[in-house]
Amino acid sequence: MKRLSILGSTGMIGRSTLDIVRRYPRRYKIAALAAGANFELLAEQIREFHPSFVSLRDKAAAERLEQRLVGRRPRVGFGPEGAEEAGGRDGVDLVVSAITGIAGLRPTLAAVRAGRRVALANKESMVAAGPILRREAARSGAVIIPVDSEHSGVFQCLAGLERDYVHKVILTASGGPFLDTPLRELGKKTVREALRHPRWKMGRKVTIDSATLMNKGLELIEARWLFDLDPARLGVLIHPQSIVHALVETIDGSVLAQMSATDMRIPIQYALTYPARAAAPVPALDLAAAARLDFRAVDERRFPLLGTARAAMIEGGAAPVVLNAANEAAVEAFLDGRIGFGGIADVVGAVMAAYRPAAVDGLESVFAVDRRARERARHIIERRS
Ligand SMILES: NC(=O)c1ccc[n+]([C@@H]2O[C@H](COP(=O)([O-])OP(=O)(O)OC[C@H]3O[C@@H](n4cnc5c(N)ncnc54)[C@H](OP(=O)(O)O)[C@@H]3O)[C@@H](O)[C@H]2O)c1
Hints:
Elements: E1 2-7, H1 12-23, E2 28-34, H2 39-49, E3 53-56, H3 59-68, E4 75-78, H4 79-88, E5 94-97, H5 105-113, E6 117-120, H6 123-140, E7 143-146, H7 149-158, E8 166-173, H8 183-186, H9 191-194, H10 204-212, H11 214-226, E9 234-238, E10 244-250, E11 255-259, H12 265-273, H13 287-290, H14 304-315, H15 319-335, H16 341-354, H17 363-384
Parallel strand pairs: 1-2, 1-5, 2-3, 3-4, 5-6, 6-7, 8-9
Antiparallel strand pairs: 8-10, 10-11
Helix pairs in contact: 2-3, 4-5, 5-6, 6-11, 6-15, 10-15, 11-14, 15-16, 15-17, 16-17
The chain binds NADP nicotinamide-adenine-dinucleotide phosphate (NAP).
The site of NADP nicotinamide-adenine-dinucleotide phosphate (NAP) has 29 residues, from helix 1, helix 6 and helix 10.
């Protein structure tokens, strides 16, 4: 029986992970859960899965949770320290890292430092602190298994393939809801329209990132560190059906593809069972019904943030930290109605243009760069609104 800690248990990835645990009650036991503000759902999860430790984002949410609990109670923590405890908790075999944004970094690092197996969905931590996470994993022996469908695809295609034989790794992107929207209309798109993703059901932040294609930019940087790949070997292709998740081109002209149904429970389950496999949690992929697989190049006039992210990946150092922080601030402002859809790329572009290269050699410098970039983004957002 594997003991799991789920960081972000009330989110889309966290809930999908619990669906898998429900299917295999003899294989998995929930040891810890961490969430943000949704104490009602966390209370239900406690009743069903009986973790010994839970945490919420702040003290007020933790107190409201305590008032709801009856009978067998877990210990309740809160704040960044609570999430970190859930990440690094003793006796846990596998940590699912699925808090959204930079808030996921400290608990993910705690899990890595504790030498746990980490099923990583929180791409922002790998974007902001890829070299730190890699270094700490090498020290502790932690194994990081990707949950993102594209990275799970790359991970599976690379299995048993000597790195010298890899020519290129390509991540696919559905293109989101605005793939064919006339360019002049893009800037006016509403929050409701941007949240209507054609293929995937995801949390709000990652759904907006998919509409701007920043999600793919963050995924390039995530892949760069997860698989230790030279940025020149990483590419993106638009594939609206979201059936092929990743492609690996070998030096002799073969292209390996990983395909599966568009359901995150498939890569989540693989991250839990790896290297074993278990029966699919969803109906098998029906390629005859799908009938066609389309691919096209990315139009970077439509998706300028992909180019911005690629430049940050190539530059390295503090650039990806600044990119991620500016994007988190801009997406939050868009979701709150303070800037329009077109403003997201403008704000991120302005923050990137103003930043001065800096080294990030440890967690504290990552957070210092992150804070400054957020302040700058907020300032730009205030001036616009
Ligand atoms: N959904 C997908 O298909 C998908 C695919 C690949 C990768 N990812 C990545 O996985 C991560 C999660 O995505 P999601 O779609 O599951 O997002 P989501 O539905 O918005 O869930 C986010 C989770 O993080 C929790 N949270 C937010 N801020 C927190 C904080 N400061 N402290 C503790 N917990 C906090 C939320 O808690 P409350 O809800 O209780 O506030 C929730 O449980 C993101 O990094 C995303 O990019 C998602």
